[in-house]
Predict the 3D structure of the following.
Amino acid sequence: MDWEKYAFATRTKQRRNILKTLERPYSPTAISKAISARANHITRNLKLMEKEDIVYCTNPEKRKPRLYDLTDEGRKILDQYEKTSK
């Protein structure tokens, strides 16, 4: 696992909540409702996490609703976070 990506993904509460929410593909709107956050903040963080190869858009050809899921690296990060945060 890339520890720099781990640090990036777990640095803020919102990114940690996004990781925990993405057990299956979700839209930014659904994530924002699930974690009680503004949709534009979720979209911004998803784009940053996508650049780091932590999440990916499952249907980039669609405009709405875009669905995001964890990459293999993102799943490793979530597993490690859940182990250490107990």
